[in-house]
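Input set for joint prediction.
Command: fold jointly, output tokens.
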Amino acid sequence: MPPRGAVPSARRTAASEVSGGDTAGRLVRPFTLTGGRTQPERGDFTLITMVTAAPPPPGGGARLQPEHTRILRLCREPVVVAELATRLDLPVSVVSILLCDLLAAERIVVQPPRAVSRTLDLELLQKVRQGLDRL
Amino acid sequence: MTGSDATLQKVSAPDTVKILIAGGFGVGKTTMVGSVSEIVPLRTEEPLTTAGLGIDDLNGIEEKKATTVALDFGRITVSQDLVLYLFGTPGQQRFWFMWNDLAVGALGAVVLVDVRRPESSFAAIDFFERRKIPFVIGVNGFYGEHPYEPEEIRESLALPEDAQVLLCDARERGSCRDVLIALIDQLIATTARGSHPSPP
Ligand SMILES: Nc1nc2c(ncn2[C@@H]2O[C@H](COP(=O)(O)OP(=O)(O)OP(=O)(O)O)[C@@H](O)[C@H]2O)c(=O)[nH]1
Ligand SMILES: [Mg+2]
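tokens >
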């Protein structure tokens, strides 16, 4: 087996090419659903952010686009953004923009993932450990 | 990423955490996700243009034509109030700009290595080393064969002595579970050390 250092160009460039790492470069057709917007206005939505439909406002609230209504149907029970995107068969980037609309209209409630820092919380890790043990 | 908006209130949804399954092209990432996930791995497709890619990575991508990058993920319900997601990172180097996004908030990573072509996972190892994201190495023995000892692989990969190298089979649930447990145990050990510093 060749040592890792033996392929310097491959291992040295790849990680540094990982640039800004946001939604730069994404585009086209699905974004017609978002009225051409390609970036969410706010960064509330990670892949594992939980989304739940909020109780409808009195009077039913503003009229929604069909895709928005579809999302509300799919998140009656809490669901993460990545799963929503899969069920909608839409890119996460598009779903995030639609979710921004729904959040602004107070039609959904959002729960960010567990904060993870280098000093992790033991209780959380032990819980994960026990869950894996049961697999 | 978490706003302090009034609309961002706590709801009774489970907490979520994630682990990345990384490594070079075709090392068995999707296979591993599928082996431990309680659901068939789900997939999302993100549209891309060459605008998001490094200049050196344009080979093989037709100019202006929209391409997509697939991201697959699985789920393990840890308890009623905690769900673990596993994300298989896109293997091809030209999609690596997505890794930064994926890495944010991850507990850690499994870097899969195919010993027949370990160099395909070098960049993944570098990625996590540089960002100080905890990881373990899973050596996926294709056809169940493991021609090298973990120690040989650790040396060859220029990994520190305390780096965990585990022989595994990405097709076997139990084997993948053990790799994940090794990662979590490593995190537990680090965390316990951090909160109870050893006396001087
Ligand atoms: N024999 C054998 N085949 C495997 C094993 N792991 C994966 N494969 C096969 O190898 C191929 C690639 O595996 P994937 O799981 O798709 O690899 P990947 O890392 O997700 O690939 P990319 O996402 O394209 O980078 C598939 O045809 C798998 O069925 C293994 O342990 N043994
Ligand atoms: Mg894959």
